[in-house]
Structures are given as C-alpha cells and as structure tokens.
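Q: Could you predict the 3D structure of WD40/YVTN/BNR-like repeat-containing protein?
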Amino acid sequence: MHVTRRTVLAGTAAAAALTALPAAQATAATTGGTPAYRWRNAVIGGTGFVTGVLFHPTVRGLAYARTDIGGAYRWDERSARWTPLTDHLGWDDWNLLGVEALAVDPAHPNRLYLALGTYAQSWAGNGAVLRSEDRGATWTRTDLTVKLGGNEDGRGTGERLLVDPRDSDTLWLGTRHDGLLKSTDRGATWAAADGFPATPSASGQGVTLLVAAGRILYAGWGDSDGTAGSVNLYRTADGGTTWEAVPGQPTGTSAKVPVRVAYDCHTRELYVTYANAPGPNNQADGSVHKLATTSGKWTDVTPVKPAGSDTFGYGGAAVDARRPGTVVVSTNNRWSAVDTLYRTTNGGRTWTSLKDSAVLDVSETPFLTFGGDEAKFGWWIQAVAVDPYDSKHIVFGTGATLYGTRDLKHWAPQIRGLEETSVRQLISPPTGEAHLISGLGDVGVMYHERLTASPSRGMASNPVFGTVTGLAQAAAKPSYVVRTGWGDHGNGACSNDGGKSWVPFAAQPALAKDAPGPIATNTDGSVLLWTFVHWDGTKYPAQRSTDNGATWSEVSSFPKGATPLADPADPTRFYAYDTDTGTLFASTDSGLTFTGRASGLPAGDSQFQLAAAPGRSGDLWLSTKWNGLYRSTDGGASFTGLTSCWASYTLAFGRAADGAGYPAVYQVGATEAITAVYRSDDGAKSWVRVNDDQHQWGWIGATIAADPRLYGRVYVATNGRGIQYGEPV
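A: Sure. Here are the predicted structure tokens for WD40/YVTN/BNR-like repeat-containing protein:
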C-alpha cells in the first residue's frame, strides 16, 4: 500500500512529500485497546421500501423481511421486533445491503437464504448468496459471478429465490440479466440452469419470480413484450430438465410483467399479479389472474381494472393458508385513488378493498403523515403477507413502512427494529432538549427529543422537504438552525427554537428550486451562505443573505459547488474547499469575498469533508478519501498532513475525554486495512476503533456527528440502516 502525505504551503502547489507510514507504526497507532461500545439505532421507524415479507410456513411467529438498500430482518413475535441480519456487511461490501430475494426451507425451519446485490450496473460489484443454519444469526457466503439489483426497477417482484420442494439441497435463483441459476449443494455453488428456454436481456428484468406449486416449479419472465404469443410464465415438472411456456397464459399490456405469485395448496390454484412495468414506478396498467394447476384453466380475477386517470398496476399477492380461496392482492403506483389491498374469500369472484374500512394509527411513527394531517394507507405496495397461523394478521410493505393488522380493520406500523433511512446530515447540539437533529433522504429533517422513540414532531414542516441537502446550526446561538433541501413549497427554512419549529425563508434564489445545495450560518446566525449544485453536477455561485433569507446576493468569489463552512468562534470567517483545484478558500468579511489560501491540497478527490474544531478559530481539518487527514491551525493558510490514517471519509468532534485538552475526534476512515469508525482522544495522534465486525452497515461515508455533551457518544449516518449511535459501556 502506497501512502503519501504532504505539508501544504500557503499560496503554492509546491509542497514537500512526507514518507509513508510504516505498517508497524500504523498498527501501533491504533492498538490502544478497543473500547467496548454499545450500538443502537436512533429510532425513526422504517422510512424505506420494504420489498418483501415472508412468513415461515411451518413455524408460528417467524417471519423475514427484505429491503432495497437496508438489508434483511427477522421478526421475533415475542418481542414484536425486527432483528437486523446483515449489519456485519462492511465498507467493501456496501453493494450487498440491497436484498434481491430471500427464501426459507419448509422442511428445515432454521435455514435461511438471501440473494444480495443492490445494483446490476457495471460500476457495482457482483452479487452474493448468504446461507444460514440458525435463522440468520451466522452466515456462510458464496460470491456470485453475476450482478443482482435489489434497488433497481423490479425490486418488489419475486421471490426470485426458491428452495426446491423435491430436494432441500437444490436451490433456484432468478437473475435479471443472466437467466436462471441452480445450486445442488444448498447454495454453496451455482451454475446456469440447463434447459431454461428464455434468453436474457442486457436491460430487461429476466426472471421475476419463482414458486413451487406442489412438485411443479413456475418461473415468471419479465422481458415479455405483452403481445399475443409472448411468454411471461414458464414451468417445469421434472426438476428443471425441461421447461415449457404455461399454456393459455394472459397477454396484453395489463399482463406484460408477472410481479408476484401465490399458491393456494388447498384449491391448487396459482394467483399471479401483473403490471405493464416491473415497478415500483411507472406502472399504469395491471391485472390479476389465477391458474387452476390441475386443469390448466386461466381465469381473470382482477378486482378493479385501471381506467381513465385511475392508473396503476398490481403488486403483492398472498394466500391464507388456513382458509381455501382466501387471497390478498395489492395495487401499486395508484396515486389518484391511493393504493389498497383487495381481499377475496371466494377465489376471486368478489373482492373487498381493505383500505375502505381501515383505521390507521401512526402515533408510533408520526413522520408517516409526511407533514400533513393524516397518513395514507399505502404506496409502493409490492410486499404482502398473510400469517399462516392467523388469518387476520396481514402485513404489507410500502415505500416508507410496514403496516400490519390483527383484525382486518385497525392498522399500525409493524416496524420496530427495522430502520432503513438514508442519512445525509447530522447535528448534535451543545444545548437543548434534543441531542440530535438529522437530515434524511426522502423524509426531511427530524428533531430527536429521544433516541429511543420516533420523533414526536415527525418530519419538519413549513415547508416539508423530501431529501435534505443542508443542515447547519449557529455555534454561539444554537437556538438558530437552518435547513435546505428538495421541497414543493420552498427549499430553505430556519428555526429559532433549536429545530423544533420552522419558518420558510421569505425569499430564495431562483436556483434553489432545481439545485438546492448545502447551507452554512456563521457563529451568531447573522449571515447565511447557500450553495447550489444541480442533480446533473452543474455547479453555480453561492448566494449570501444577511437578513435571515429575505434577500440574497451572489458571491462570485466563492468556489462554485463547494460546501461552505463557518468558523465556530469568529462570525466574520467562512471557509470552503475547492476539490477541483485543491485550494482552500477563506473569507474574513462575513462571506462577502473569498480568497485562495493553501493550495496543493488533494484535487479531484471523490469524497472529502472540511470541518472545524469547536470553540477554536481557524482550527480546520480536511478529510480525504485517497490522502487521509490534513490539519490547519492558521485559518487555512497552510495545512499539514497527518500520518495516523491513510483514508478519511468524514470527521466530527465531540466532548473531550476526562483530562484531555482537545475535543475527541471521530472519523469514518482507515488506519490499517479496514474502513471503520474510529475515535482519537489525543488530536488524531492515535486512534481506537469503536465499531466492530458485527456493526459495519455497509457504506457509512456520508457524515457523522459526535455529542458535545456526552463523551464517547458518536452518531453514524448510514445509507440504508438509519442513524446508528454508539457509546461506551
């Protein structure tokens, strides 16, 4: 491993390169004894797309859930909680946090299988299969030679993974672009299934679902064009030696893509939901059909056909194992009339919409009102399950939660323990009720008055944001907080009570609507700096306000697209790091003008953060992905490379250790081979790792925050496992 460090001189790119840290010295720098930490989620409750739920058919109270970017979970009926099963996947395995499919073995209740892979793009790694003999407590892994797409279109279809009912050692895996795979050694090795007739497409859905109906296997094919004679469902009766198109199957746009399937073993009927697209987006037509597997007769049992402005597809499908002919299906992408579940007790002759009589209780997760007066029944419903031991226990996943009922009328989130938020911004205030304020993907800003319960105020409103792009607090006036993000009724707001309530900026630059970026406020809250970056990467000049957002003026000398940073002690100072040129810019006139200071810093680094040590003017730290840490004690006039780590992704400062003269420093970075969460009590001379191999959460490079009031507590932003916080025990 080659590591270089340099001292950066003011105003010049010429700098002296320092030697690489020897491996033995690097080890010594981190071996001060790993402290014992307890890690928990800051509770929000779901917030992401639950793409699959599966009750075990032979074990009461046992169920599993999968998500598109947040891993898999096991349901514990006694504690009424979900247990995360894939938190051990680390930085290098970030692409495996998306779960393409899961499978259980009815004959061996402790066996569980996961097919993992978030993206099937060229820049993403290959998929993997995890197999467990203890319900996900421990795993054995097989890396695949193909890619899976747990967060791509079609992620709510399935299941694409199946244990063969003829032989528990045989597994089947449907892929998007590589056809059907088969394993005969319980998932240890995989090969293409000989004889499967469909030809994979580089851009299609491939195999969307697999199901066993008795001893016959069915495979849904998502690359049909829907025309007469096209095939969307195949079957084999001889264990995969030969496959055939199922005769008489439906065609047309409403039956183009088979989304979900459920088999009623009492009536020997197969129920298939269809849509004109794989979903969860872009579905405008759909249908439900059932196949009598003994006679081969197909029947259209669609509850309501999409028509006019009421466009949607069909998604989830589940049968009641205790009541023949009782089936539940869901609509999907039905925005005008809102998605619903339809339930039949007579094999699809008549249906009842469960939404029409539903009483929703979201008091445990208030964010589900999305800043409005009440929650909606559901959206993006492609995961539906009926408890095989309780006919009235139905659950369904949405884009933000998992609803459950025990009486077919009263519904509430059944989500405890399942946290899937993609976290973008974190602040730990020095005073006040809340120890944490968070800026999130899709669900805005939240004020965490308690870490063990979902924020009682839900999403910050006035205005409501979807994804947050900026969150900042005035260091000397912590009651003043500002936020920016993607909103339908404004893109910036301020709070004068520490983040409890908000007021939109009186005005905003025109760029804010299409390119809202990070924001900063100086230490007394008298100046705002707002930067703008379009989703396509185009960068624009920053805008400045001295009247709390009533008027704005362009700061032409600010480096376009950079993230502004306020000095924590001097209200006249701001900073910005221009990664395009590797130059630190500073302002000493409250953000009116910026001038270049230190240059020769790492240019073009794909990830970096500029941070300021609390309570100290001009004490700046620069963390970089490829070059580690740099520090300046003269307001950015010069920087010195630190040799205690070789990669640093994000940095934060917290309460100092007893007797220490400098705040505790935390980072997501690498001091040796592994990327992890580290703490330093001696100004980054040495580090101790504070997470462990069972608590890694994939990619955690967005941001971290440390508590200025509680030594040792650190908050870690994940990209699908919510906010993790750790503290010494």
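Q: Anything worth pointing out?
A: Residues 45-413 form a domain with the Methylamine Dehydrogenase; Chain H fold (CATH 2.130.10.10).
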